[in-house]
Amino acid sequence: MVAARVTVNGQEAPISPAAPHTTVLDFLRERGLTGTKEGCAEGECGACSVLVARPGVNKPTDWVAVNACLVPVAALDGQEVVTSEGLATAGEPGTAPALHPVQEEMAARGGSQCGYCTPGFVCSMAAEYYRPDRCAHAGGEDGASHDGADAEHGPNGFDLHALSGNLCRCTGYRPIRDAAFAVGTPTDEDPLARRREQAPPAPVATEYAQDDSAFVRRSTLAETLHLLRERPDAVVVAGSTDWGVEVNIRSRRADCVVAVDQLPELRELRVESDVIEIGAALTLTEIERRLDGAVPLLAEVFPQFASRLIRNGATLGGNLGTGSPIGDSPPALLALEASLVLADADGEREVPLAEYFTGYRQSVRRPGELIRAVRLPLPLSPVVAFHKIAKRRFDDISSVAVAFSLDVQDGVVRKARIGLGGVAATPIRALATEAALEGRPWTAETAEAAASALRAEGTPMNDHRASAEYRSAMLGQSLLKLYAQTTEAVPS
User: What does DSSP say about strands 256-259 and 213-217: parallel, antiparallel, or unpaired?
Assistant: First the structure.
């Protein structure tokens, strides 16, 4: 097997002698690329962001920003990485490199003071700069007019959510926003823009070992499942957005880490007449852009799920595989009546998500088994909403998450599915509330009675995010909010 290597700013570099758990952040800094910073070591500040070449949605390759502090460098075997240093264009011998357009705008508009967070902002901004479907609204790209835009989208088509995972501690966000809204479009001579027209790096099989630990990626699902049968104790990772935190904050190590992020069998998305099947290793960003609003409930979840940096790595398989009771996707998937395709070396089985969780971070998934896909039955109910109650609007963990999927016909609730997170040891369906809604008129009286039932669902607890009483109150209020949203009088 070929020695593990990664291409950094156009130059190929061996991963050895880094340990298998070494992050991309530490690998880069050891090589003198100190623009990549560690701020939080858990993917919340964005000081570590870098660009990675990934399979594109609108072009063969997308430049995707990820948290270098979470991803093991071995996971990038055979891949391409660009850091803040690599964005600048080399000049003539003896001259300074020419700044990249996003770097120029950040400098010109005062987007940096201490500069610690700036390289991370620049990389996240560059990923949005190169997004193929970004296009200017009416009013041009000079940042002076917001015609056709809004507070979170610039006249140049720049989506500020691209920066939602980047924190600045001293500059203030106005000049950074001004820089984002001022960048133009890539020129034909831009090498990173041209790179998008070529195929991304092909997945490679990896077996990288140092001392008594190993990072392994097989080429096919069958090979991976046979490995997991031999090593049921192995840690399975895709985007490493959860495992990376365990490694950094809790100093966890694993004898064997198995990567599934590039398995073709886990990266399919199929839309058929009666079902949508979503591969467990597709990132949330890929799902969001490929579905393009086809599942309205998920379209509400995605902008509230952590940050763009996290969504560029996180997967549904990972979010469900961890079994966390406060993950944002399970409530929505429960409301959508999702089922999971579980695979092992002997074959596959389909399990309704409502029967998947068995206890705190426990599930019916057996040793050696992994999630291959998530299936959503069609047709979808027309009345949907996702209410996330958290201390911050974005990039935060839910205190309570509530997902609604209702079918209301002729003023009567024909079907109700409600998923809850943060109110029990597992994500749950609000069965009593569903029963209180189905077959009844969609009126204020029905909503009040169902809200009372919803307040009693689950077993909320007191913790540093919220009290049990607050969580219960928010459950009831969430249903009343849904009723108000669906019955507001249309102004004449």
Answer: parallel
The per-residue pLDDT string of the chain (492 residues; one tens digit each, 9 = 90 and over) reads 679 999 999 999 999 999 999 999 999 999 999 999 999 999 999 999 999 999 998 899 999 999 999 999 999 999 999 999 999 886 667 777 789 999 999 999 999 999 999 999 999 999 999 999 998 875 554 444 444 467 889 999 999 999 999 999 898 899 999 999 999 999 999 999 999 999 999 999 999 999 899 999 999 999 999 999 999 999 999 999 999 999 999 999 999 999 999 999 999 999 999 999 999 999 999 999 999 999 999 999 999 999 999 999 999 999 999 999 999 999 999 999 999 999 999 999 999 999 999 999 999 999 999 999 999 999 999 999 999 999 887 788 899 999 999 999 999 999 999 999 999 999 999 999 999 999 999 999 999 999 999 999 999 988 888 999 999 999 999 999 999 999 874 333
Here the tokens at position 431 are 């069965």
φ, ψ at 207 (rounded to 5°)? -140, 90
Alpha helices in 40-109 (DSSP H): 84-87, 101-108
Burial class of 94 by CB neighbour count within 10 A (0 to 12, 13 to 18, 19+): exposed
Alpha-carbon distance of 46 to 307, in angstroms, equals: 10
CA 271 remoteness from chain centre: 21
Q: Please give the Cα distance from 357 to 458 (Å, whole number).
A: 14
Nearest-angstrom CA–CA distance, 294 and 212 = 46
The three-state secondary structure class of 178 is: helix
Please choose, from the candidates 46, 456, 71, the residue with its C-alpha nearest in 3D space to the C-alpha of residue 257. 71
The identity of residue 208, as a single letter, is: Y
Length of the chain: 492
At which residue do the structure tokens 């895709």 appear? 238
Cα separation, 81 vs 424, whole angstroms: 41
Residue-by-residue DSSP string for 294-357 = SSHHHHHHGGGSS-HHHHTT-BHHHHHHT--TT-SHHHHHHHTT-EEEEEETTEEEEEEGGGTE
CA 91, distance to chain mean position in Å, is 37
Exposed e or buried b for every residue in 140-149, given b needs 16+ CB within 10 A? Answer: ebebeeeeeb
What does residue 456 show for φ and ψ, rounded to 5 degrees? -95, 0
**Those residues with Cβ within 8 angstroms of residue 12's Cβ, 6 or more apart along the chain or in another chain:** 5, 6
For residue 279, give the nearest of 377, 349, 371 by alpha carbon.
371
Q: What DSSP string describes 425-489?
A: SS-EE-HHHHHHHTTSB-SHHHHHHHHHHHHTSS-----SS--HHHHHHHHHHHHHHHHHHHHPP
- Considering the entire predicted model, what is its pTM? 0.94
Sequence-separated (6 or more) residues with CB below 8 Å from residue 441: 411, 412, 413
